[in-house]
Amino acid sequence: MRDNSSYWSRRYPGTRLGRRAFLGSSVGLGVGAAALGLVGCGDDDDDDDDEPAAPATEAATEAPTEAPTEAPAADAPQQGGSYIWEGDGIRFVPAVVDPHLAGSGGVRLWLFAGNIAVRRNFDGSELTPELFNAWETVDGVDHIVTIRPGVKTHDGALTGGRLFNTEDVAVNLERIAGLLAPDGDASAYWMANLLQGLVSAEAVDDSKVTVTFSSPLAFPWGLTLPYATLMPVENFESGGLQNAQPDTISGTGPWALSEYKTDESFTADRHPDYWDGAPYMDNVIWRPTGDRVSQSASFIQGNGTFFNNPSKVERETILDAREGSQLFHWAGSTCAYTIFNCRPGATFEDKRLRRAMHLATNYVANQEAFWGKGFFHLGGVLNNAHAEGISQEELLTMPGWRVDKTEDLKTANDLIAAAGFPEGEGLSFEFMGNTVWEAYGYNFSIRQMDDWRSAFPKIDVEGRLSADPTAHIEALTNGGFDVSHLPIGSSSPASSDLGQYRTGAGNNFSGYSNPELDALIASADAKYIPSEASEDVLAAQRILLEDMPQLIDHRLHQSGIYAPDVRGFPIIPGASEPLAGNFENWDTIARHAADLWLA
Questions:
Q1: Are strands 428-433 and 460-465 parallel, antiparallel or unpaired?
Q2: Strand 326-340 and strand 483-488: pairing?
Q3: Residues 549 and 569 occupy one common structural domain
Q4: Using CA atoms, how far apart are residues 38 and 527, in angstroms rounded to an integer?
Q5: How confident is the model at residue 91 (pLDDT cuts 50, 70, 90)?
Q6: Which DSSP string corresponds to 486-503?
Q7: What value, to the nearest 5°, has the Cα angle with vertex 17 and ends 15 and 21?
Q8: Residue 56, Cα to own-chain centre: how many angstroms?
Q9: In the predicted model, is pLDDT for residue 60 greater than 50?
């Protein structure tokens, strides 16, 4: 049985409250995370307003104001049952499940079976421990990491339940950075940019790892995404990351892989020795059930526990048809992007064309049509989950993002004519998309092309579907596209998020290059205390507003509908709504499966 006090007391040291006490508390209890610093850290409505509304809250589950002294039996945590997630498509049950490699849809498995080094607090201002228990540096170059003690790996054939150790950490860091790439080509390791300049990671003893960079870096901020999952080293030798099977995969997370059927489903069973307390439910079952219509129908019939990121139509249909379904949503930090190929000789090397496409896009109307008011957030060029990003309120007053498009369309036509394509005549290109990412940019791209055809009546733009997400990422990496959409999870701090624009970065899919911007990113990186890099970040943002190599279609409102019988939704310290937080995204929804039980 999962220990009620484990999750909250371990994750937020010094706060000796059980999880139910947190569920009965409010914002003031978030102070427990404030002591965790960087340099030394330890243990819907549908009205017709013109502007996006604030997040709708009427359907959110209310947290009790007080923890009961004795919980009613129906509300007490219960062991058993299955957490069944039927959404989002076969890309998450691929043969290859290596989270460190670009385009690996297998990261979904590791959301349940693995852990990362550190996590971000409610607003992304602090880091909280996960597999790292503490970290320190005096110069941003040499760092000392203390790992969390007593973390048992899964008790299967591969690791036999051994303790996760410092050698595991050292190897993972060098691998994520691309230092261990078998052919010496680190470009496949798309998180390498977040460990820019890593020289070495070495296990010192049973508890400490030394991590050395060639220049100062805000470490370990680059390790907050699930693609930086830390795994037992046996996974790199077993072949399991290329062909997942229970006897060739082992992690440290709350769920251990028990069955894997490529392109069909996977099941992961409760890890009884999980360091943060064993889950309540017996297993997690991930089984895609066809398209979104099939998925919503299956959920309505009572087959699923969770339905991910419903559109406006899906949301209204499910809540009406399955009585008692529980909706949660908040502005997270995952963003859908439109990416222009800016490489030399490419059509969109000319920034006048990029700006024209931006000005002709109707961001608000397109998102309201798909998500509904109050269920999306405008994003700009730098994710405004970060304090330095331009707020939605300000964006609504700016060219391109404002609701009244009259002046924008005039300027857009002036720009496209100046670039040699009056009314779009002679301008022909393809917009690469993938239906798997319907909610993460594909639907928006269809509406966006309609915007462009309307604004520039002689333009020739057609959609091109990539074969699958892996092929999509390969085309982005190789420059084999004109324009593309892509969902991107936000890294932290803001200076790290800017790394995707750095010349030559593995995740710089636009091929954009600007020496002035590179210098600002380097300057921000050198200020390894994130708050000291804000001026550099703001200056970089101004350059990106001018050059626009890629644009945020929307900052995703992380949204999900849970079955009526699910209980145990945690309130993140610093938040007032269950599950909510600027940096609580789809990855943390999977992680919180361990906290939930069935009534």
A1: parallel
A2: antiparallel
A3: no
A4: 12
A5: low
A6: EEEPPPSSHHHHGGGGST
A7: 135
A8: 22
A9: no
Is the pLDDT at 122 greater than 70, yes or no? yes
Residue 312 placed within a domain: no
Contact 280, 596 (CB under 8 A): yes
Which residues form the domain of 60?
A: 6-250+565-598
Separation in Å, CA 495 to CA 145, 351, 512, 523, 541:
22, 23, 17, 9, 10
Question: In sequence order, which ranges of 142-264 are alpha helices (DSSP H)?
Answer: 166-176, 235-238
* pLDDT tens by residue, 459-515: 999 999 998 888 899 999 999 999 999 988 888 889 888 989 999 988 899 999 999
Pairing mode, if any, of strands 40-41 and 283-286? unpaired
Local confidence band at 161 (pLDDT 50, 70, 90 cut-offs): very high
Domain contains 99: yes
Amino acid at 304: G
The answer to whether residue 257 is domain-embedded is no
Angle 86-87-89 from CA coordinates, rounded to 5°: 115
CA–CA distance, 77 with 240 (Å, rounded to integer): 34
Residue 194 has pLDDT above 50, yes or no: yes
Arithmetic mean of pLDDT over the chain: 86
* pTM as predicted: 0.81
Helical spans, DSSP H, in 40-97 = none
**Distant-in-sequence, close-in-space partners of 404: CB < 8 Å, separation ≥ 6:** none
